[in-house]
């Protein structure tokens, strides 16, 4: 899953665009129930489409068939924590597994229910690991539990040594590795890193000797968010070894980030650039004013379309029926925020108890 794919999935589809979401189990014997639960959900999809007078029988059959084919692409014996299936009347289908639990539900709408994919994308650690050593600077691409060296955009970077020529060959002898040389090298590293961050902004973990880290921080500008540090030189270390070192650093960063979200919301409240509650948040987001949306992971709200507006109503997700019913207005708010270039952060349930489970930092 990447940002481009997620952006494409958020675009409107012809009705009915159907989403099936189901928690899955990683281990036996619990995962033996997953195929049964999936069959039941697909049966619910068929029943709902057949009962909906807006859906032609041929379109209903095509969507159900698409979901069945998408489900066939997933081996439930080796699933993660959640399954997400999408299908639309034109034959489009998608299947995803995510490494976090999802709430079981069927959503019938003109868009796919992407909030769990967004949550997985946003909440899964995505970071850059910059490894500093005396003569080589490497950049590693960290996503969830994987780490791969980034061999592009000038990385790995090996600055040309400032050596004297001896007998037509370059020699390292006779030239000290002074602070001035290290500062020049770090400027090159920062320039290359900033170029990467222009098209893929993530927090950066810096690994290296204390001396090298100090030179890097001196050269780094405000566009580089340092998530944490790993002390020591790890040139030549394996990806698995680096993952072990980075994991506690990232956990501390995520814990602090949730606390920082509350601080940001309180500051926005003081500046009168704050809103909470799904009604007010939705209104501002629809106006393109959402800068940073913060949502509890398990918060959903059905709504009814009235007079061109979505009005949230009380009721269990998926329980309401009718042409004017939208299964989840929170999903609409999330997608609209992203469409206008805003940021979305998911937090643990209960974390926004004083903010009505959803809050917004407003642009203006």
TrEMBL record:
Pfam families: baeRF_family3
Annotated InterPro entries: Bact_RF_family3 (IPR041289)
Protein name per its UniProtKB record: Chemotaxis protein
Species for this entry: Actinomadura namibiensis
């Amino acid at each position: 899953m990447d940002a481009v794919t997620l952006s494409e999935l958020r675009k409107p589809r012809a009705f009915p665009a159907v989403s099936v979401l189901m928690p899955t189990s990683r281990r036996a014997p619990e995962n033996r129930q997953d195929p049964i639960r999936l069959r039941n959900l697909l049966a619910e999809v068929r029943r709902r489409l057949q009962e909906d007078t807006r859906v032609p029988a041929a379109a209903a059959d095509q969507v159900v068939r698409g979901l069945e084919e998408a489900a066939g692409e997933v081996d439930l014996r080796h699933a993660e924590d959640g399954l997400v299936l999408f299908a639309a009347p034109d034959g489009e289908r998608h299947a995803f597994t995510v490494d976090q639990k999802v709430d079981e539900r069927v959503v019938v709408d003109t868009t796919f229910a992407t909030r769990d994919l967004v949550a997985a994308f946003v909440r899964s650690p995505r970071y850059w690991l910059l490894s500093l050593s005396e003569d080589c600077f490497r950049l590693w691409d960290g996503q969830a539990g994987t780490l791969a060296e980034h061999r592009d955009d000038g990385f790995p970077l090996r600055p040309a040594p400032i050596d004297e020529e001896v007998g037509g060959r370059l020699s390292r002898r006779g030239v000290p590795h002074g602070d001035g040389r290290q500062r020049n090298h770090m400027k090159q590293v920062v320039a290359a890193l900033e170029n990467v961050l222009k098209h893929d902004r993530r927090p950066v973990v810096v690994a290296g000797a204390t001396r090298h880290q100090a030179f890097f921080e001196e050269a780094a500008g405000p566009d580089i968010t340092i998530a944490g540090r790993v002390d020591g030189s790890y040139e030549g270390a394996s990806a698995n070894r680096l993952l072990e070192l980075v994991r506690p650093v990232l956990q501390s960063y995520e814990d602090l980030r949730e606390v920082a979200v509350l601080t940001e919301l309180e500051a926005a409240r003081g500046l009168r650039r704050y809103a909470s509650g799904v009604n007010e948040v939705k209104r501002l987001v629809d106006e393109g004013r959402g800068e940073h949306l913060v949502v509890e992971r398990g918060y959903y709200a059905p709504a009814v379309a009235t007079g061109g507006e979505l009005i949230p109503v009380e009721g269990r997700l998926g329980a309401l029926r009718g042409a004017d019913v939208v299964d989840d207005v929170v999903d609409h708010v999330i997608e609209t925020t992203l469409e206008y270039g805003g940021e979305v952060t998911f937090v643990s349930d209960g974390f926004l108890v004083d903010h009505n489970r959803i809050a917004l930092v407003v642009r203006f």
